[in-house]
Amino acid sequence: QVQLVESGGGLVQAGGSLRLSCAASGGTFSRYVMGWFRQAPGKEREFVGASSWRGGNMHYADSVKGRFTISRDNAKNTVYLQMNSLKPEDTATYYCAARMSLFGETSGEYEYWGQGTQVTVSS
Q1: Of the candidates 32, 57, 24, 27, which has an alpha carbon nearest to the alpha carbon of residue 109?
Q2: I want to staple 47 with a disulfide (CB 3.0 to 4.6 A). Which of 3, 10, 81, 105 is the partner?
Q3: Average pLDDT over residues 31-56
């Protein structure tokens, strides 16, 4: 059983940056594909990006390409989401998720989830 805890959310002005962290415990972190998703009020949860087991490959949603970067430190059992050039439409609760398989871009493909961290971008 993998436990995931996100941190780093907050309030930021448009154009600003935030870095989210997701600390994992209870499993072999390096064996999991780690994904980031977000959910805005009244909207479905959407894929943001994902990291391969060793961090050599990343996939991103088109809406965040060039602005968001995922990295992971397997020695620290932590995955990060660096968010730059933030826009008001990035406002959402951000979740990290883990799956022991190939890349996935739908929430149903992920087995483990964190509790989420709120990101609010003001205009």
Answers
A1: 32
A2: 105
A3: 94
Query: What integer pLDDT is reported at residue 12 of this predicted model?
Result: 98
The pLDDT assigned to 8 comes to 98
Cβ pair 27, 2 in contact under 8 A: yes
98, 122 Cβ separation under 8 angstroms: no
Residue whose C-alpha is closest to residue 35's, from 59, 19, 54? 59
**What token pair was written down for 96?**
């990290």
Six-digit token pair at 38?
Answer: 């977000």
Helix (H) or strand (E) holding 6: strand 3-7
Instruction: Give the C-alpha separation, 2 to 27, whole Å.
Output: 5
Beta strands in 8-108 (DSSP E): 10-13, 18-25, 33-39, 46-51, 58-60, 68-73, 78-83, 92-99
Q: How far is CA 121 from CA 34, 81, 93, 95, in A?
A: 24, 16, 11, 16
Strands 112-113 and 3-7: unpaired
